[in-house]
Amino acid sequence: MHFDVIIAGCGPTGAMLAAELRLHDVRVLVLEKETEPPSYVRIVGLHIRSIELMAMRGLLERILERGRRRPAGAYFAAIDKPAPEGLDSAYAYLLGIPQPVIVHLLEEHAVELGAQIRHGCAVVGFAQDDDGVTVELADGERLRSRYLVGCDGARSTVRKLLGVGFPGEPSRNETLMGEMAVGAPQDEIAAKVSELRETDRRFSLAPAGVGVYRVVVPAAGVSDRGAPPTLEDFRRQLSAVAGTDFGVHSPRWLSRFGDATRLAERYRVGRVLLAGDAAHIHPPIGGQGLNLGVQDAVNLGWKLAAQVRGWAPETLLDTYHAERHPVAEDVLDNTRAQMELLSAEPGPRAVRRLLTELMDFEEVNRHLLEKITAIGIRYDFGAGPDLLGRRLPDIDLKEGRLYGLLRRGRGLLLDRTGRLTVGGWSDRVDHLADPTAALDAPCVLLRPDGHVAWIGDEQRDLDDHLSRWFGRPTT
Ligand SMILES: Cc1cc2nc3c(=O)[nH]c(=O)nc-3n(C[C@H](O)[C@H](O)[C@H](O)COP(=O)(O)OP(=O)(O)OC[C@H]3O[C@@H](n4cnc5c(N)ncnc54)[C@H](O)[C@@H]3O)c2cc1C
Fold first, then answer.
1. Distance in Å, CA 260 to ligand 1 centroid
2. pLDDT in tens, 404-444
3. Nearest residue by C-alpha to atom 51 in ligand 1
4. C-alpha torsion 130→131→136→142, nearest 10
5. Ligand 1 mutation target, pool 68, 137, 277, 339, most atoms within 8 A of CB
Protein backbone atom coordinates (compact mmCIF):
# COMPACT_ATOMS: atom_id res chain seq x y z
CA MET A 1 0.00 0.00 0.00
CA HIS A 2 1.90 3.07 -1.22
CA PHE A 3 -0.66 5.74 -0.38
CA ASP A 4 -3.25 6.24 2.29
CA VAL A 5 -5.47 8.38 0.08
CA ILE A 6 -5.58 8.94 -3.67
CA ILE A 7 -7.50 12.00 -4.82
CA ALA A 8 -8.81 12.11 -8.41
CA GLY A 9 -8.73 15.73 -9.65
CA CYS A 10 -6.64 18.71 -8.63
CA GLY A 11 -9.20 21.49 -8.83
CA PRO A 12 -9.81 23.64 -5.75
CA THR A 13 -11.53 20.79 -3.87
CA GLY A 14 -8.83 18.18 -4.53
CA ALA A 15 -5.98 20.57 -3.74
CA MET A 16 -7.60 21.72 -0.48
CA LEU A 17 -8.34 18.15 0.60
CA ALA A 18 -4.75 17.09 -0.07
CA ALA A 19 -3.48 19.90 2.16
CA GLU A 20 -5.96 19.06 4.94
CA LEU A 21 -4.86 15.41 4.89
CA ARG A 22 -1.19 16.37 4.98
CA LEU A 23 -1.79 18.29 8.23
CA HIS A 24 -2.17 14.82 9.73
CA ASP A 25 0.76 13.18 7.90
CA VAL A 26 -1.53 11.15 5.65
CA ARG A 27 0.34 9.85 2.56
CA VAL A 28 -1.63 11.46 -0.23
CA LEU A 29 -1.36 11.38 -4.02
CA VAL A 30 -3.41 13.68 -6.26
CA LEU A 31 -3.98 12.57 -9.85
CA GLU A 32 -4.91 15.36 -12.29
CA LYS A 33 -5.75 14.50 -15.86
CA GLU A 34 -4.78 17.87 -17.37
CA THR A 35 -1.20 19.06 -17.79
CA GLU A 36 -2.09 22.77 -18.06
CA PRO A 37 -4.68 25.02 -16.35
CA PRO A 38 -7.84 25.64 -18.45
CA SER A 39 -7.56 28.24 -21.24
CA TYR A 40 -10.58 30.17 -19.92
CA VAL A 41 -10.47 32.19 -16.69
CA ARG A 42 -13.33 32.31 -14.22
CA ILE A 43 -13.00 35.14 -11.74
CA VAL A 44 -14.50 33.53 -8.70
CA GLY A 45 -15.51 35.05 -5.41
CA LEU A 46 -14.40 33.58 -2.12
CA HIS A 47 -17.16 34.22 0.38
CA ILE A 48 -16.75 34.89 4.10
CA ARG A 49 -16.60 31.29 5.39
CA SER A 50 -14.01 30.26 2.81
CA ILE A 51 -11.93 33.36 3.61
CA GLU A 52 -12.15 32.37 7.27
CA LEU A 53 -10.93 28.87 6.42
CA MET A 54 -8.00 30.33 4.49
CA ALA A 55 -7.16 32.45 7.55
CA MET A 56 -7.49 29.36 9.78
CA ARG A 57 -4.90 27.51 7.71
CA GLY A 58 -2.51 30.47 7.36
CA LEU A 59 -3.22 30.93 3.65
CA LEU A 60 -5.03 34.22 3.60
CA GLU A 61 -2.07 36.54 3.20
CA ARG A 62 -0.85 34.97 -0.01
CA ILE A 63 -4.39 34.87 -1.39
CA LEU A 64 -5.04 38.52 -0.52
CA GLU A 65 -1.91 39.49 -2.48
CA ARG A 66 -3.47 38.05 -5.63
CA GLY A 67 -7.14 38.89 -5.10
CA ARG A 68 -9.37 41.94 -4.80
CA ARG A 69 -11.54 42.71 -1.81
CA ARG A 70 -15.12 43.68 -2.63
CA PRO A 71 -18.17 44.43 -0.50
CA ALA A 72 -19.84 41.29 0.88
CA GLY A 73 -23.41 42.20 -0.12
CA ALA A 74 -25.47 42.17 -3.36
CA TYR A 75 -24.78 38.52 -4.27
CA PHE A 76 -28.22 37.01 -3.76
CA ALA A 77 -29.73 37.02 -7.27
CA ALA A 78 -27.58 40.15 -7.85
CA ILE A 79 -30.13 42.19 -5.87
CA ASP A 80 -28.34 45.42 -5.17
CA LYS A 81 -28.44 45.68 -1.35
CA PRO A 82 -25.39 46.33 0.79
CA ALA A 83 -24.50 43.78 3.46
CA PRO A 84 -26.14 44.41 6.85
CA GLU A 85 -24.06 46.15 9.51
CA GLY A 86 -22.15 44.25 12.17
CA LEU A 87 -21.60 40.90 10.45
CA ASP A 88 -20.10 38.48 12.94
CA SER A 89 -16.81 37.93 11.13
CA ALA A 90 -13.38 39.54 11.01
CA TYR A 91 -13.41 38.84 7.26
CA ALA A 92 -16.69 40.42 6.15
CA TYR A 93 -15.87 40.90 2.47
CA LEU A 94 -15.83 39.04 -0.84
CA LEU A 95 -12.47 38.17 -2.33
CA GLY A 96 -12.44 38.19 -6.15
CA ILE A 97 -9.66 36.04 -7.60
CA PRO A 98 -9.12 34.16 -10.89
CA GLN A 99 -9.87 30.45 -10.37
CA PRO A 100 -6.51 29.28 -11.84
CA VAL A 101 -4.73 31.50 -9.28
CA ILE A 102 -6.59 30.07 -6.29
CA VAL A 103 -6.03 26.53 -7.61
CA HIS A 104 -2.32 27.28 -8.02
CA LEU A 105 -2.06 28.67 -4.47
CA LEU A 106 -3.91 25.72 -2.93
CA GLU A 107 -1.77 23.28 -4.91
CA GLU A 108 1.41 25.06 -3.79
CA HIS A 109 0.21 24.85 -0.17
CA ALA A 110 -0.55 21.12 -0.50
CA VAL A 111 2.89 20.44 -2.00
CA GLU A 112 4.60 22.49 0.74
CA LEU A 113 2.87 20.24 3.25
CA GLY A 114 4.17 17.14 1.45
CA ALA A 115 1.37 16.08 -0.94
CA GLN A 116 2.39 14.42 -4.20
CA ILE A 117 0.60 15.73 -7.27
CA ARG A 118 0.87 14.12 -10.70
CA HIS A 119 -0.44 15.98 -13.74
CA GLY A 120 -1.43 14.30 -16.99
CA CYS A 121 -2.82 11.26 -15.10
CA ALA A 122 -6.50 10.48 -15.66
CA VAL A 123 -8.26 8.00 -13.41
CA VAL A 124 -10.22 5.60 -15.64
CA GLY A 125 -11.14 2.81 -13.26
CA PHE A 126 -10.93 1.43 -9.75
CA ALA A 127 -11.89 -1.59 -7.68
CA GLN A 128 -12.32 -1.60 -3.92
CA ASP A 129 -11.98 -4.49 -1.50
CA ASP A 130 -11.85 -4.88 2.29
CA ASP A 131 -8.34 -3.42 2.60
CA GLY A 132 -8.15 -0.70 0.01
CA VAL A 133 -8.73 0.56 -3.50
CA THR A 134 -6.84 -0.26 -6.71
CA VAL A 135 -6.90 2.77 -8.98
CA GLU A 136 -6.34 2.44 -12.72
CA LEU A 137 -4.84 5.24 -14.82
CA ALA A 138 -5.40 5.93 -18.52
CA ASP A 139 -1.95 4.52 -19.39
CA GLY A 140 -2.76 1.24 -17.67
CA GLU A 141 -0.74 1.88 -14.48
CA ARG A 142 -2.36 0.60 -11.28
CA LEU A 143 -1.92 2.22 -7.89
CA ARG A 144 -3.06 1.06 -4.50
CA SER A 145 -4.35 3.17 -1.61
CA ARG A 146 -6.58 2.77 1.40
CA TYR A 147 -9.14 5.36 0.25
CA LEU A 148 -10.04 7.14 -2.99
CA VAL A 149 -11.77 10.53 -3.16
CA GLY A 150 -13.37 11.72 -6.39
CA CYS A 151 -12.76 15.46 -6.65
CA ASP A 152 -12.93 15.16 -10.42
CA GLY A 153 -15.60 17.74 -11.15
CA ALA A 154 -19.10 17.76 -12.62
CA ARG A 155 -18.56 14.88 -15.04
CA SER A 156 -16.81 12.83 -12.34
CA THR A 157 -15.52 9.48 -13.58
CA VAL A 158 -15.32 8.27 -9.96
CA ARG A 159 -19.00 9.06 -9.32
CA LYS A 160 -20.09 7.33 -12.54
CA LEU A 161 -17.99 4.22 -11.86
CA LEU A 162 -19.36 4.09 -8.30
CA GLY A 163 -22.85 3.99 -9.77
CA VAL A 164 -24.06 6.70 -7.40
CA GLY A 165 -27.23 8.41 -8.63
CA PHE A 166 -26.97 12.09 -9.57
CA PRO A 167 -30.61 13.18 -9.67
CA GLY A 168 -31.75 16.71 -10.45
CA GLU A 169 -32.53 18.88 -13.45
CA PRO A 170 -30.61 18.97 -16.75
CA SER A 171 -29.30 22.26 -18.09
CA ARG A 172 -32.08 24.42 -19.50
CA ASN A 173 -30.25 27.73 -19.92
CA GLU A 174 -26.86 27.73 -21.59
CA THR A 175 -24.69 30.83 -21.41
CA LEU A 176 -21.67 31.95 -23.43
CA MET A 177 -18.86 33.73 -21.60
CA GLY A 178 -15.59 35.04 -23.02
CA GLU A 179 -13.11 37.88 -23.16
CA MET A 180 -12.56 39.72 -26.42
CA ALA A 181 -11.73 43.05 -28.02
CA VAL A 182 -14.69 45.26 -28.89
CA GLY A 183 -14.93 47.72 -31.80
CA ALA A 184 -17.93 49.79 -30.61
CA PRO A 185 -17.30 53.00 -28.58
CA GLN A 186 -17.38 52.68 -24.77
CA ASP A 187 -20.36 55.03 -24.19
CA GLU A 188 -22.44 53.21 -26.80
CA ILE A 189 -21.71 49.89 -25.06
CA ALA A 190 -22.54 51.33 -21.61
CA ALA A 191 -25.89 52.73 -22.82
CA LYS A 192 -26.92 49.49 -24.52
CA VAL A 193 -25.88 47.35 -21.55
CA SER A 194 -27.82 49.41 -19.03
CA GLU A 195 -30.93 49.33 -21.27
CA LEU A 196 -30.74 45.55 -21.74
CA ARG A 197 -29.93 44.72 -18.10
CA GLU A 198 -33.33 46.22 -17.15
CA THR A 199 -34.99 43.12 -18.60
CA ASP A 200 -32.26 40.51 -19.13
CA ARG A 201 -29.89 39.93 -16.24
CA ARG A 202 -28.12 37.07 -17.96
CA PHE A 203 -26.51 39.53 -20.35
CA SER A 204 -23.43 41.63 -19.56
CA LEU A 205 -20.44 43.34 -21.16
CA ALA A 206 -17.91 44.50 -18.58
CA PRO A 207 -14.45 46.03 -19.17
CA ALA A 208 -11.64 43.50 -18.58
CA GLY A 209 -8.57 45.48 -19.64
CA VAL A 210 -7.76 48.10 -22.25
CA GLY A 211 -10.21 47.66 -25.16
CA VAL A 212 -11.16 44.19 -23.88
CA TYR A 213 -14.56 43.20 -22.47
CA ARG A 214 -15.88 40.17 -20.63
CA VAL A 215 -19.00 39.18 -22.56
CA VAL A 216 -21.81 37.09 -21.05
CA VAL A 217 -24.74 36.32 -23.33
CA PRO A 218 -27.49 33.66 -23.36
CA ALA A 219 -26.66 30.81 -25.74
CA ALA A 220 -30.25 29.88 -26.61
CA GLY A 221 -29.62 29.56 -30.34
CA VAL A 222 -26.29 27.74 -30.19
CA SER A 223 -27.14 24.17 -31.04
CA ASP A 224 -24.05 21.98 -30.53
CA ARG A 225 -23.61 21.89 -26.75
CA GLY A 226 -20.68 19.49 -27.02
CA ALA A 227 -18.48 21.72 -29.21
CA PRO A 228 -16.46 24.67 -27.85
CA PRO A 229 -18.11 28.01 -28.73
CA THR A 230 -16.69 30.14 -31.55
CA LEU A 231 -16.42 33.91 -31.97
CA GLU A 232 -19.15 33.58 -34.62
CA ASP A 233 -21.48 32.13 -31.93
CA PHE A 234 -20.84 35.21 -29.77
CA ARG A 235 -21.48 37.58 -32.72
CA ARG A 236 -24.75 35.85 -33.57
CA GLN A 237 -26.00 35.77 -29.99
CA LEU A 238 -25.05 39.40 -29.33
CA SER A 239 -26.88 40.49 -32.47
CA ALA A 240 -29.95 38.46 -31.47
CA VAL A 241 -30.05 39.92 -27.93
CA ALA A 242 -28.69 43.47 -28.41
CA GLY A 243 -29.29 44.15 -32.10
CA THR A 244 -25.51 44.62 -32.58
CA ASP A 245 -22.41 42.44 -32.16
CA PHE A 246 -20.44 45.44 -30.82
CA GLY A 247 -17.71 44.67 -33.37
CA VAL A 248 -16.23 41.92 -31.18
CA HIS A 249 -12.95 40.37 -32.37
CA SER A 250 -9.62 38.90 -31.18
CA PRO A 251 -10.93 36.64 -28.36
CA ARG A 252 -8.66 35.86 -25.40
CA TRP A 253 -10.78 32.87 -24.46
CA LEU A 254 -14.34 31.61 -25.02
CA SER A 255 -16.36 29.27 -22.82
CA ARG A 256 -19.90 28.18 -22.07
CA PHE A 257 -21.73 26.92 -19.03
CA GLY A 258 -25.18 25.62 -18.21
CA ASP A 259 -27.51 25.59 -15.22
CA ALA A 260 -27.85 21.86 -14.57
CA THR A 261 -28.67 21.24 -10.91
CA ARG A 262 -27.83 17.83 -9.46
CA LEU A 263 -26.83 16.25 -6.16
CA ALA A 264 -25.13 12.88 -5.61
CA GLU A 265 -27.34 10.49 -3.62
CA ARG A 266 -24.40 9.32 -1.50
CA TYR A 267 -21.06 10.94 -0.70
CA ARG A 268 -19.49 7.65 0.40
CA VAL A 269 -19.55 4.08 -0.80
CA GLY A 270 -17.15 2.02 1.29
CA ARG A 271 -13.62 3.34 0.75
CA VAL A 272 -14.57 5.77 -2.01
CA LEU A 273 -15.88 9.29 -1.35
CA LEU A 274 -17.03 12.25 -3.44
CA ALA A 275 -16.45 15.97 -2.87
CA GLY A 276 -16.92 19.29 -4.68
CA ASP A 277 -18.53 19.43 -8.13
CA ALA A 278 -18.24 15.64 -8.33
CA ALA A 279 -20.94 15.57 -5.63
CA HIS A 280 -23.05 18.61 -6.55
CA ILE A 281 -23.58 20.98 -9.46
CA HIS A 282 -25.73 24.08 -9.79
CA PRO A 283 -25.76 27.37 -11.72
CA PRO A 284 -22.94 29.78 -10.81
CA ILE A 285 -25.37 32.46 -9.56
CA GLY A 286 -24.22 33.73 -6.17
CA GLY A 287 -20.72 32.27 -6.74
CA GLN A 288 -20.98 29.30 -4.39
CA GLY A 289 -19.62 26.15 -6.14
CA LEU A 290 -15.93 26.52 -5.40
CA ASN A 291 -16.69 27.68 -1.86
CA LEU A 292 -18.87 24.62 -1.28
CA GLY A 293 -16.14 22.29 -2.58
CA VAL A 294 -13.40 23.84 -0.43
CA GLN A 295 -15.70 23.57 2.61
CA ASP A 296 -16.44 19.89 1.78
CA ALA A 297 -12.68 19.34 1.78
CA VAL A 298 -12.22 20.94 5.22
CA ASN A 299 -15.12 18.91 6.63
CA LEU A 300 -13.81 15.64 5.18
CA GLY A 301 -10.05 16.09 5.63
CA TRP A 302 -9.68 15.54 9.38
CA LYS A 303 -12.29 12.77 9.46
CA LEU A 304 -10.58 10.77 6.71
CA ALA A 305 -7.22 11.44 8.36
CA ALA A 306 -8.64 10.10 11.67
CA GLN A 307 -9.82 6.98 9.86
CA VAL A 308 -6.40 6.45 8.27
CA ARG A 309 -4.53 7.07 11.52
CA GLY A 310 -6.80 4.67 13.33
CA TRP A 311 -8.38 6.91 15.97
CA ALA A 312 -11.69 7.71 14.25
CA PRO A 313 -14.83 6.79 16.20
CA GLU A 314 -16.86 4.28 14.19
CA THR A 315 -19.38 6.68 12.70
CA LEU A 316 -17.10 9.71 12.20
CA LEU A 317 -16.49 9.26 8.47
CA ASP A 318 -20.21 8.96 7.79
CA THR A 319 -20.84 12.33 9.43
CA TYR A 320 -19.24 13.80 6.27
CA HIS A 321 -22.33 12.87 4.21
CA ALA A 322 -24.70 13.60 7.11
CA GLU A 323 -23.35 17.15 7.49
CA ARG A 324 -22.43 18.19 3.96
CA HIS A 325 -25.26 16.64 1.90
CA PRO A 326 -27.93 18.91 3.50
CA VAL A 327 -25.66 21.95 3.04
CA ALA A 328 -25.38 21.21 -0.70
CA GLU A 329 -29.14 20.58 -0.87
CA ASP A 330 -29.69 24.07 0.54
CA VAL A 331 -27.24 25.66 -1.93
CA LEU A 332 -28.95 23.91 -4.86
CA ASP A 333 -32.27 25.25 -3.66
CA ASN A 334 -31.06 28.80 -3.25
CA THR A 335 -29.58 28.76 -6.78
CA ARG A 336 -32.90 27.45 -8.14
CA ALA A 337 -34.63 30.37 -6.41
CA GLN A 338 -32.07 32.86 -7.67
CA MET A 339 -32.42 31.63 -11.26
CA GLU A 340 -36.18 32.20 -11.07
CA LEU A 341 -35.51 35.73 -9.85
CA LEU A 342 -33.42 36.45 -12.97
CA SER A 343 -36.27 35.63 -15.32
CA ALA A 344 -37.65 38.43 -17.50
CA GLU A 345 -41.24 37.09 -17.14
CA PRO A 346 -43.72 39.39 -15.34
CA GLY A 347 -44.41 36.95 -12.45
CA PRO A 348 -40.75 36.41 -11.39
CA ARG A 349 -40.05 40.13 -11.93
CA ALA A 350 -42.84 40.96 -9.48
CA VAL A 351 -41.41 38.46 -6.95
CA ARG A 352 -38.00 40.07 -7.41
CA ARG A 353 -39.45 43.53 -6.67
CA LEU A 354 -41.14 42.16 -3.56
CA LEU A 355 -37.96 40.43 -2.33
CA THR A 356 -35.98 43.61 -3.00
CA GLU A 357 -38.41 45.43 -0.66
CA LEU A 358 -38.18 42.65 1.93
CA MET A 359 -34.40 42.86 1.95
CA ASP A 360 -34.75 46.32 3.49
CA PHE A 361 -35.60 44.36 6.65
CA GLU A 362 -32.20 43.67 8.16
CA GLU A 363 -33.09 40.14 9.29
CA VAL A 364 -34.07 39.12 5.74
CA ASN A 365 -30.93 40.63 4.25
CA ARG A 366 -28.79 38.97 6.93
CA HIS A 367 -30.45 35.57 6.44
CA LEU A 368 -29.77 35.57 2.69
CA LEU A 369 -26.21 36.79 3.13
CA GLU A 370 -25.47 34.13 5.76
CA LYS A 371 -26.75 31.53 3.30
CA ILE A 372 -24.58 32.66 0.38
CA THR A 373 -21.46 33.17 2.51
CA ALA A 374 -21.99 29.91 4.47
CA ILE A 375 -21.49 31.59 7.86
CA GLY A 376 -25.04 30.60 8.85
CA ILE A 377 -24.35 26.85 8.65
CA ARG A 378 -25.28 24.94 11.79
CA TYR A 379 -24.57 21.20 11.72
CA ASP A 380 -27.00 19.02 13.63
CA PHE A 381 -25.04 17.76 16.65
CA GLY A 382 -28.22 17.18 18.69
CA ALA A 383 -30.05 19.41 21.16
CA GLY A 384 -28.09 22.27 22.71
CA PRO A 385 -27.47 26.00 22.69
CA ASP A 386 -27.62 27.84 19.37
CA LEU A 387 -23.82 27.97 19.13
CA LEU A 388 -23.54 24.16 19.06
CA GLY A 389 -22.74 23.03 15.51
CA ARG A 390 -21.91 26.54 14.28
CA ARG A 391 -18.49 27.83 13.34
CA LEU A 392 -16.79 30.14 15.81
CA PRO A 393 -15.65 33.50 14.42
CA ASP A 394 -12.01 34.55 14.77
CA ILE A 395 -12.36 35.86 18.33
CA ASP A 396 -9.66 37.62 20.36
CA LEU A 397 -7.75 35.55 22.90
CA LYS A 398 -5.00 36.42 25.31
CA GLU A 399 -2.51 34.79 22.90
CA GLY A 400 -3.78 36.59 19.80
CA ARG A 401 -6.59 35.45 17.55
CA LEU A 402 -8.37 32.11 17.61
CA TYR A 403 -7.71 31.09 13.99
CA GLY A 404 -3.96 31.29 14.56
CA LEU A 405 -4.40 28.35 16.96
CA LEU A 406 -6.22 26.20 14.40
CA ARG A 407 -3.50 26.10 11.73
CA ARG A 408 -2.42 22.53 12.43
CA GLY A 409 -5.92 21.16 11.96
CA ARG A 410 -6.23 19.87 15.53
CA GLY A 411 -9.17 20.09 17.91
CA LEU A 412 -9.13 22.86 20.51
CA LEU A 413 -10.65 23.18 23.97
CA LEU A 414 -11.22 26.84 24.80
CA ASP A 415 -11.54 26.85 28.54
CA ARG A 416 -12.60 29.98 30.42
CA THR A 417 -12.80 28.12 33.73
CA GLY A 418 -9.21 26.84 33.77
CA ARG A 419 -10.51 23.67 35.50
CA LEU A 420 -10.76 21.27 32.57
CA THR A 421 -8.25 19.04 30.79
CA VAL A 422 -8.04 17.21 27.45
CA GLY A 423 -6.15 14.38 29.19
CA GLY A 424 -5.58 11.37 26.95
CA TRP A 425 -6.66 13.28 23.85
CA SER A 426 -3.80 15.80 24.03
CA ASP A 427 -2.18 14.23 20.95
CA ARG A 428 -5.23 15.33 18.90
CA VAL A 429 -6.72 18.23 20.84
CA ASP A 430 -5.07 21.40 22.15
CA HIS A 431 -6.17 23.11 25.37
CA LEU A 432 -6.19 26.84 25.97
CA ALA A 433 -7.20 28.11 29.41
CA ASP A 434 -8.17 31.72 28.85
CA PRO A 435 -10.61 33.49 31.19
CA THR A 436 -10.56 36.53 28.86
CA ALA A 437 -11.82 34.68 25.72
CA ALA A 438 -14.66 36.64 24.09
CA LEU A 439 -17.07 33.73 24.43
CA ASP A 440 -20.68 33.46 25.54
CA ALA A 441 -20.02 30.08 27.18
CA PRO A 442 -17.76 28.72 29.94
CA CYS A 443 -15.91 26.33 27.62
CA VAL A 444 -16.21 25.15 24.03
CA LEU A 445 -14.67 22.22 22.21
CA LEU A 446 -13.82 23.03 18.59
CA ARG A 447 -13.38 20.44 15.87
CA PRO A 448 -10.49 20.87 13.43
CA ASP A 449 -12.90 22.51 10.95
CA GLY A 450 -13.69 25.24 13.51
CA HIS A 451 -17.24 24.05 14.36
CA VAL A 452 -18.39 23.93 17.97
CA ALA A 453 -18.67 20.28 19.07
CA TRP A 454 -19.48 20.84 22.74
CA ILE A 455 -20.37 23.62 25.19
CA GLY A 456 -20.24 23.20 28.98
CA ASP A 457 -18.07 23.14 32.08
CA GLU A 458 -18.11 19.56 33.37
CA GLN A 459 -15.13 17.25 32.84
CA ARG A 460 -17.17 14.05 32.52
CA ASP A 461 -19.44 15.57 29.89
CA LEU A 462 -16.38 16.89 28.06
CA ASP A 463 -14.74 13.44 28.09
CA ASP A 464 -17.89 11.94 26.52
CA HIS A 465 -17.73 14.48 23.73
CA LEU A 466 -13.98 14.08 23.24
CA SER A 467 -14.69 10.35 22.75
CA ARG A 468 -17.55 11.10 20.39
CA TRP A 469 -15.40 13.24 18.07
CA PHE A 470 -11.81 12.16 18.73
CA GLY A 471 -12.08 8.48 19.60
CA ARG A 472 -10.46 6.64 22.49
CA PRO A 473 -7.97 8.47 24.71
CA THR A 474 -4.33 7.44 24.59
CA THR A 475 -3.36 5.81 27.85
C1 LIG B 1 -19.00 30.94 -15.07
C2 LIG B 1 -18.75 30.35 -13.73
C3 LIG B 1 -18.49 31.18 -12.66
C4 LIG B 1 -18.28 30.64 -11.39
N5 LIG B 1 -18.07 31.49 -10.33
C6 LIG B 1 -17.91 30.98 -9.10
C7 LIG B 1 -17.72 31.84 -7.97
O8 LIG B 1 -17.69 33.06 -8.07
N9 LIG B 1 -17.56 31.27 -6.75
C10 LIG B 1 -17.60 29.91 -6.58
O11 LIG B 1 -17.49 29.45 -5.44
N12 LIG B 1 -17.76 29.07 -7.62
C13 LIG B 1 -17.92 29.57 -8.87
N14 LIG B 1 -18.08 28.72 -9.93
C15 LIG B 1 -18.08 27.26 -9.69
C16 LIG B 1 -16.65 26.71 -9.60
O17 LIG B 1 -15.92 27.04 -10.74
C18 LIG B 1 -16.71 25.18 -9.40
O19 LIG B 1 -17.67 24.88 -8.43
C20 LIG B 1 -15.35 24.63 -8.95
O21 LIG B 1 -14.44 24.65 -10.01
C22 LIG B 1 -15.47 23.19 -8.43
O23 LIG B 1 -14.21 22.77 -8.00
P24 LIG B 1 -13.85 21.19 -8.00
O25 LIG B 1 -12.42 21.12 -7.58
O26 LIG B 1 -14.87 20.46 -7.22
O27 LIG B 1 -14.02 20.74 -9.52
P28 LIG B 1 -13.21 21.23 -10.81
O29 LIG B 1 -12.79 22.64 -10.67
O30 LIG B 1 -14.05 20.85 -11.98
O31 LIG B 1 -11.89 20.35 -10.78
C32 LIG B 1 -11.94 18.98 -11.12
C33 LIG B 1 -10.55 18.58 -11.60
O34 LIG B 1 -10.55 17.17 -11.84
C35 LIG B 1 -9.86 16.91 -13.05
N36 LIG B 1 -10.36 15.63 -13.56
C37 LIG B 1 -11.54 15.36 -14.16
N38 LIG B 1 -11.66 14.06 -14.43
C39 LIG B 1 -10.52 13.47 -13.98
C40 LIG B 1 -10.05 12.12 -13.96
N41 LIG B 1 -10.80 11.13 -14.46
N42 LIG B 1 -8.84 11.86 -13.42
C43 LIG B 1 -8.07 12.87 -12.89
N44 LIG B 1 -8.47 14.17 -12.90
C45 LIG B 1 -9.69 14.46 -13.42
C46 LIG B 1 -10.18 18.10 -13.92
O47 LIG B 1 -9.22 18.26 -14.97
C48 LIG B 1 -10.16 19.24 -12.90
O49 LIG B 1 -8.88 19.81 -12.78
C50 LIG B 1 -18.31 29.23 -11.21
C51 LIG B 1 -18.55 28.39 -12.30
C52 LIG B 1 -18.78 28.94 -13.56
C53 LIG B 1 -19.07 28.03 -14.71
1. 14
2. 999 999 999 999 999 999 999 999 999 999 999 999 999 99
3. 284
4. -140
5. 277
